[in-house]
Structure formats: C-alpha cells, structure tokens
Amino acid sequence: MKKAGIVGLPNSGKSTLFNALTNQNVPAEKYPFCTIEPNVGILVVEDERLTRLAQMEGSKDQIHPFFHIIDIAGLVKGASRGEGLGNQFLDHISKVDMIFHVVRCFKIDDVSHPMGSVDPARDIEIVEIELILKDLETVNKRIEKIAKQARTGEESARFELHFLERLKAHLESGKPARILSRNEQEQAILDSLFLLSEKPAIYVANVDEWGLGQGLDKIVEKMARERSSESITVNAQIESEARELSPEEARELLLAYGFDTNLKKRFLEHIKRALKLICFLTATKNEARSWLVPEGITAYEAAGLIHSDIQKGFIKAEVIPFEQILQFSSFKEAREAGAVKSHGKDYVIREGDVVHFLFHA
Ligand code: GDP
C-alpha cells in the first residue's frame, strides 16, 4: 500500500492539513487500515463513478479510492545532523512513497514562525537541504564501497562510480536528486539508493484567508516547477474548519474565500499523477469498489489484488469503460448488448475500466 508523508517546518500547517485530508465523513471501518498511530491517517476520496455503478448494480457497500497519509513532524534546520527529531524524522520519510511539502504562506502574528518571518522560498530550501544532506551521506557511503571495486577494473563498478560522482556534484549544488537527468541504467542505480530527494513531491502552499492575491503561492508554484513537481494552493485552516459543517455550508464557506471546493479530490489527482496510478472499478451485489492501482497493471495482476483465488483460477476479464456502461442499466445488460469485451491475462487495465473477473473457483 503506497503512502504519502506530510513534511514542512513547524507551524507550517502540517497537522491542520493532515486533519483536513484524513478526517472522514464516510464510515472508515470498511477501509483496510491497520494502525492506531495518531499521525497515520487515511484519505478517502469519493469516486462519483463508483457511486453511480453501485446504484446500477445494487451493491450493498462501496469502497472508494483511499491512500495512506502520515504527518511527519519534527523537521528543523539541522535535522540531517540529528537536530530536533532529526534521524527519526528522516527515517519516516524514507518509508513513504511520496512527499507533500507544506510551505507556510500565511501570515498570522499569533502563530510563530520558527525562522521569525514568512518566506516560502527560504523555507522550501531549508527542508530540502536537510533531505539532500542525508542523501549525500548515502551517496558518499556508496562511493566509498564502489570505489574499491572500480579500482580492480570492474566495468559496471566504474560506470556506477562515474554516475555517483555526477549525482554527488548535483546534490552538492543543492538540487534534489529528482531533477537529475539519467538513462535507464543510471535509473536502476538511483532506485537502489532510495534517496529522499528522489521521491516525488507535491508542494503545498498553505495560504491564509486573504492570501490568495498576495502571490506567495506563486513563489511555491515556480519553485515546484523548477523541481519538476506540481504545487497546490490550500488554506488548511478553512479546510479543517469546513469539516465541521454540512457539505453545502462547507462549499459556501470555501467559495466565499475563493477556494476550490474539493480538496481531497484535488489531492488524489495530484497523487495519481505523481505516482502514476489509475482507478478501475468492480461491482457485485455485495460491494462496489474503485481500486487505486499502478498504471500499466495487467488484468492478471489486478485479479491478484482482489483475491489470490481469482488470480489462481483466472479465466478472463470482462471489461467496459465506465462512460460506456452509462448507456445501459447494468453490467448484465451491457454484456447482453455486446458492449462488454473479454480480455486475457495480459490486458492492460485503463483508467475508468469497469472490470468483472471470471475464474475457476
Ligand atoms: P504544524 O506544526 O506544521 O503541524 O502546524 P499546525 O498544523 O499545528 O498549525 C500551526 C498553527 O497554524 C495552528 O494554530 C493552525 O491553526 C494555524 N494554521 C495552519 N494553517 C493555517 C492557515 O492556512 N491559515 C491560518 N490562518 N492559520 C493556519
């Protein structure tokens, strides 16, 4: 199960955002979730296609796409040298698949800023430098090891060493690994290093109520672009307050301040792009589910996600794109009309496919 970690300087709004994203207005017990740690939560996003499909098929339960989110507190300047929660903090980051980097753009006097002033560009760099310093440690260790092998003339070791030196110079110039150019062979080396600054990141500009026009989020947006990443502007505080309201009231509140109304959905879209994920749908009388899975997944692999028995006994996958099933009243009717296609194990599942697996029990 993939997960994202929320990082940022103290008082940037991490916990507020975490609460806004993970506080559920859906019954959460249906979602596979196995931790009781307070800083681990689950983002559940309504997939309207699923709601519709569940109606058509008369499904009892609905499981919407979900994603694990971890609030990683404790980053201060010097974390890579063990300051603050230092290593523990970096350890947490090493375990997530992607990062939400929250950047304080709100100027509220009664919420102190650890650096004394609001300055998104400086703050982004402080956090990034800590990750990069940690990565440099990792790269230096590897260089030491590989240098010995390279001296004995091993071709692959020489290649790796050459790349590691280039990577080191890149990191030393203060740039995240993510934006280093690489070929396939170099990518494999990078993958084996598990660098923190290689993880996909989404920069979250946390602006205040009257902050939309101040342009601080534009700084975040520009820096994100320079780092081959996306950015998102939020007001964590209002989002968090909106949770207490009815959906209509929340919508009105957000619109009044000029914010988009569906934070969770926006986040899921960013997550899907950053990690190259798609959703496909299944529905039985018992349960309809929207599955968040890696792009390129085959029907056989998808069957395995649902149940090992379905994979073992795989016969075929019956598939119809969601938009097409809307022309019928049910999957059965679509099948009878010849609109459902049958595919074998190697079929690559696409975004919005409605899939029905046939298997030997
Ligand atoms: P963390 O240390 O990064 O987890 O920060 P918190 O989420 O605890 O937020 C620190 C303080 O800033 C809290 O008092 C929040 O209510 C406040 N805060 C967070 N986001 C916003 C925001 O978007 N606007 C305003 N005005 N205050 C915010």
Describe this structure in words.
The protein has 14 helices and 12 strands. The protein is α/β, with parallel strands linked by helices and 361 residues long. The strands form 3 sheets. The protein has a 6-stranded mixed β-sheet, with helices on both faces. A 3-stranded mixed β-sheet has the order 3-9-8. Strands 11-10-12 form a 3-stranded antiparallel β-sheet. Helix 1 (14-22) runs parallel beside helix 8 (236-242), helix 4 (120-151) runs antiparallel to helix 5 (155-172) and helix 8 (236-242) packs antiparallel against helix 9. The two termini are 27 Å apart. The structure holds guanosine-5'-diphosphate (GDP). Guanosine-5'-diphosphate is lined by residues 8, 10-16, 106, 108, 111, 206, 208, 235-237.
Draw up the topology in text.
Blueprint: E1 3-7, H1 14-22, E2 40-44, H2 48-57, E3 61-63, E4 66-71, H3 86-94, E5 98-104, H4 120-151, H5 155-172, H6 184-193, E6 201-206, H7 216-226, E7 230-234, H8 236-242, H9 247-256, H10 263-275, E8 277-283, E9 287-294, H11 299-306, H12 308-312, E10 314-321, H13 322-325, H14 331-336, E11 341-343, E12 353-359
Parallel strand pairs: 1-4, 1-5, 3-9, 5-6, 6-7
Antiparallel strand pairs: 2-4, 8-9, 10-11, 10-12
The chain binds guanosine-5'-diphosphate.
Guanosine-5'-diphosphate binds at residues 8, 10-16, 106, 108, 111, 206, 208, 235-237.
